[in-house]
Amino acid sequence: MKIGICAKVTPDTDARIKPAAGGEGIDESGHKMVVSPYDSFAIEEAIVTKEAHGGEVVSFTVGPESTVTQLRGSCLALGADRAVIIHDEAAIASDALGKAKALAAAIKKDDCSLVFCGKVAIDDDNVQVPAMVAECLGWALVSRVTDFALDGDTFTATRAMDGGVKHVVTGTLPAVITAERGLNTPRYAKLPAIMKAKRKPIDKLDLAALGLTADDMAPACTFTNFSAPPARPSGRILEGDVPDVVKELVSLLRNEAKVI
Amino acid sequence: MSGILVFAEHESGTFKKTAYELLGKASELAASLGTSVSAVVLGDAPASELGGFGASTVYQVAGDFSAYSTASTTDALAAAVAQASPDVILAPASFAGKDALPRLTARLNSGMGSECTDLRVEGSTVIGRRPMYAGKVYADVVVNRSPALFTVRANSFAQPTPAGGGAEVVAVSFSATTPAVTVTEAKAPEAVSVDLTEAERIVSGGRSLKSGEQFDAVIRPLGAALGATVGASRAAVDAGYASHSEQVGQTGKTVNPTLYIACGISGAIQHLAGMRTSKVIVAINKDPEAPIFEHATYGIVADLFEVCPALEAEFKSVL
Fold first, then answer.
1. CA A116: distance to chain centroid?
2. What is d(CA A210, CA A95) in angstroms, rounded to the nearest whole number?
3. Which of A23, B15, B300, B314 is the most exposed place for a label (fewest CB within 10 A)?
4. CA atoms of B99 and B39, how far apart (whole Å)
5. How far apart are CA B257 and CA A194, in angstroms?
């Protein structure tokens, strides 16, 4: 069985994101780039599944060739066997659906039957690509999974619904599973594995290799007018003894802010 | 093709507040565009009542939607869209909005603006305004195909005042085409409360609580006294004081309440990213240099173990 991972390389959570001059996009300079944190749970689950059931783990990324660094360090060094990078400019510049079409084509070409994704990439926060990949492939989808087990081609998963409700679901492969925090604890790479990862194969594909054209990548969504978040009105520190400031706070919440 | 179609979600026949928020905003947008508003309802709910909130037509899809299914939600919405032929589709950024709506978008070969916090009309185009990078930047999103899909965060728009009048209800049937999974068990949450992403009031605790026992003894009763949902910082969750589902921040929930009380939370960038759109932020921390104070509407520089119990008592006496 081939198990796929969709992995995106994004700025780290500690990055201070600023709009680019002119507001078309963000200032990309100087950020520490990482594999998006939720994708790390997807990678771990793919490796755990391979350890239990055998097979091969392949990661799929739409992004520039420079993502090799993060994919070697955070995917291949942890146990993925191979990485596929779709580095075509038109795919990188496309929207969620364009990227999903490219990923789905690569997953199909590699004949995977189970794909793990993070529930969200922490840059655009779209929460779109995994569901779109499932639709492009005509596969089942289970989002926000906190527990996963495979038995033959039948899986059981626990998904985190709104309001703290959890659903236990069963289904049949092929399927796209998105990883929620709590699914597992990602392992750390060990030095021999890091060295070994340097020799693992990385396939760099353009659209033609996937049977797609730049027309397939024409984005339906455009993002413009990037700006810093709306400024908050400056606040105030309440001074005094605890009993007094607590009374003052409740009075302000009620009479000034009118939120209680 | 015309009009704005709102996905009106309900829980066992009671519409969620996002249904009204979206219908109110859709009515405003439709007035600027010179078009009409319709709604889609899955399963049993009083569809006609949505007429009082601006929907002239409600497409009601028959079926059992009580246990959420990606497949039937997508297939049913696709059937309603085929019948309504809308230019714009608005949906809540709920589980279904994040799970089935992108799948529907792919089926329609269109585009979707996720988790918008505002929508406006320019010319004949609806533009979404949304946080990205967990709220570190905001951007406009335009969908240049039809229908244009947008999901909207709860609490982004005011609830409209209901007017009289019912909507025309059109029955829609659908055929299942998407591979399904079966729900074998639904587990209720340990403590019943409003989901963080929909909560009007949130009380959050950080690492300063020092233990799960103290988190339970200080933060949860304060939340209960205020009728608030309890949240936690990444540090508190990593230390095991609170559960993963309670984490607020870039790698947890992004929240949008009217009142957010941060107790013993320093205000790391990734936490601020998840709660900075809160209308009023109260920060309680004994470190006057904590970054959270730069974002707080009201700050108290004192030990949370003194402030929180006093605040709990004060809420109990006035609320």
1. 10
2. 17
3. A23
4. 19
5. 44
Predicted structure pTM score: 0.90
Q: Is the CB of A121 inside 8 Å of chain B's CB atoms?
A: no
- The A residues from 191 to 250 touching B (CB cutoff 8 Å) are 219-230, 232-233, 235-238, 242-243, 245-247, 249-250
Please give chain A's pLDDT, 260 residues, in tens: 999 999 999 999 888 999 998 899 999 888 999 999 999 999 999 999 999 999 999 999 999 999 999 999 999 999 999 999 999 999 999 999 999 999 999 999 999 999 999 999 999 999 999 999 999 999 999 999 999 999 999 999 999 999 889 999 999 999 999 999 889 999 999 999 999 999 999 999 999 999 999 999 999 999 999 999 888 878 899 999 999 999 999 999 999 999 99
| Record: contact B311-A170, CB cut-off 8 A | no
As a whole number of angstroms, the distance between CA B56 and CA B52 comes to 9
Most A CBs within 10 Å, among B110, B200, B245, to test the A interface: B245
Q: How far is B36 from chain A (nearest CA, A)?
A: 24
The type of residue at B47 is A
Residue B209: Cβ within 10 Å count: 27
Is the minimum CB–CB distance between B70 and chain A shorter than 8 Å?
A: yes
Nearest CA in chain A to B131: A229
Dihedral sign for Cα B203, B206, B212, B213, please.
Answer: negative
Say yes or no for a CB contact (<8 Å) between A166 and B311.
no
CA dihedral A104, A12, B247, B285 (to 10 degrees): -170
CB contact under 8 A, B138 and A226: yes
Q: Indicate the length of chain A as a whole number.
A: 260
In the block, tokens 């026949």 appear at B13
ipTM: 0.93
